[in-house]
Sequence to fold (43 residues):
Amino acid sequence: MIKHGMGWLPDYPDFRDYTEETEEIKTILKSSKSAKSGRLSLK
Fold:
């Protein structure tokens, strides 16, 4: 017997899902010395 799925795949996380207000990002920014000093570079 062959099983057929629904064909639906969940979305991958998108970088736009994470903002400065996201709890995970808040904890990273709090612990980051470069973010505290204002010398964060996005290069």
The mean pLDDT is 77. The CA atoms of residues 34 and 40 lie 5 Å apart. The chain is about 35% helix and 0% strand. The helical segments are 23-31, 33-37.
